[in-house]
Write a structure and sequence with these properties.
Elements lengths: L9 H25 L56 E3 L2 H13 L18 H5 L5 H13 L6 E5 L16 H14 L4 E5 L19 H14 L4 E2 L34 H13 L6
Parallel strand pairs: 1-2, 2-3, 3-4
């Protein structure tokens, strides 16, 4: 390749430089593709993010195994065995809005797959409660599992993550992505063979209708971003409101209770709210693909 005197010609030097430049660009392209094609971006956070309290507790060690996916990433496409579409056998985890939605579901669904509304009092059970394995809510979950599944894991569990960001309320407790992930892992530990679906709270119109949703009503947008991460990590499947699936709602002044947060109807006086949300829930879960 070199000339007769051991010197490189200009053509040869140019060729070497071209090869080196091409290798450098190729290395950058490979790095970009392996990292998802873009730099990490911060999740939505109104006014610089929700205030985070100093953690006064951490969850107690789980008495159950806490499995993690063998390889990080979304789970394979889900189908539900046809034999698992049995009345009152699917579980759910959430708060009062979840409970209200299930009350409407039981009224409008022809399949009624989920545990009945009556007796499963999960009002006020926000993420920080489900994150804590010492919380009494896990006793309620175990009782439902025993009553309707004979102690076996429900075929499907719907997880709706609720957070109260109204500082004037006793249930006020900002959370982090880590808290949400731990909540989902706790459900997985309590029901290792169940198929998990995750959702944020239903939407509101306007977003500021419910004061529990924090500044600008931003809690739902933040939780939606976190649920996308939970799904991307392979911890659960996307339910309503996640990864392009339409969310439940929106609740409006016509379908919300006087507090602006809960659906009207059912336990919250007259109105179409609970049936509205229950019908949307049925449209998603009652029509999951069967195998």
């Amino acid at each position: 390749m070199a000339g007769t005197r051991g010197r490189f010609t200009r053509v040869e030097i140019g060729l070497v430089a071209s090869i080196l430049l091409t290798s450098s660009v190729l290395g950058v392209v490979i790095w970009r593709l392996s990292s998802g094609g873009s730099e990490p971006t911060a999740a939505f956070s109104p006014q610089g993010g929700f205030p985070l309290p100093s953690r006064s507790h951490r969850p107690s060690p789980s008495p159950f195994p806490t499995p993690s996916p063998a390889s990080p990433g979304k789970l394979p496409k889900v189908t539900i065995p046809a034999a698992d579409f049995k009345q009152n056998t699917w579980g759910y985890v959430g708060c009062s809005n979840t409970h209200d939605t299930l009350a409407g579901y039981q009224m409008v669904s022809s399949l009624r797959l989920f545990w009945p509304y009556a007796g499963y009092r999960i009002e006020g059970q926000t993420v920080d409660k489900w994150e804590n394995l010492n919380s009494p809510v896990w006793g309620l979950f175990a009782a439902e599992k025993q009553k309707y599944n004979g102690g076996k894991d429900p075929p499907v569990i719907w997880i709706q993550a609720c957070v109260d960001l109204d500082p004037s309320e006793g249930n006020y407790h900002p959370v982090t992505l880590s808290d949400v992930e731990q909540m989902v892992r706790n459900v997985r530990a309590a029901a290792p063979t169940s198929i998990l679906f995750v959702s944020p709270l239903q939407s509101y119109s306007p977003p500021t209708l419910c004061p529990k949703m924090g500044p600008g009503g931003g809690e739902i947008a933040q939780m939606t971003a976190w649920m996308h991460t939970v799904v991307a990590e392979g911890l659960a499947y996307p339910g309503p409101g996640v990864d392009g699936i339409p969310n439940l709602g929106p609740l409006t002044v016509t379908t919300a209770f006087t507090d602006g947060c809960h659906p009207n109807g059912g336990d919250h006086g007259p109105g179409p709210g609970v049936d509205f949300l229950g019908g949307q829930l049925a449209a998603f879960f009652d029509n999951l693909p069967k195998s």
